[in-house]
Request: fold
Amino acid sequence: MEVINQLDHDLFLWLNNWGNESWDGFWLIVTSKWSSIPIYAILLFLIYKKYGVKGTLITLVAVALLITCTDQLANLFKHGFERRRPCGQEGIKELARFIAPRCGRYGFFSAHAASSMALAIFVGNMLRDRYKWIVVVLIFWAVLIGYSRIYLGVHYPGDVLVGFIVGGILGYIFRKLQQLALIKFNA
Reply:
């Protein structure tokens, strides 16, 4: 386990130190929940075009439950594992660039990474029959958000990777549940 932690620390420092002040503002925008609102609005419009009002409402409930699930599961893991974030860990924080507005205590696993990947898999699979490229675009968006957490100094790559895996699995499961709900309610 110590070898994996050391690899995670080394990879974090390498990726985090790619940063420079001219890019800091960009990555702060990428990680902000508010900057994704235009993406959410476009996805909502595309979902409405495919499903109409009833199907869109069912989908919105599924998305709300999905995001709640990823967020609460991440909190459960954070408090269960109590793995310090790099910005708060002695021996790492002195070597890293920390530009996030705050650090937080624990970081395993990244809720940002989990939620963005969950949404990418959920919506990407939902709309891929109409928009072949959407899965790739949404996964790229999720990866940008995941990398932003490393860039800002608040998550190790392992935190982000586990967040992607958990989010991907939950996105797939909730997509299947949403399909069943659409059939049940004839949407």
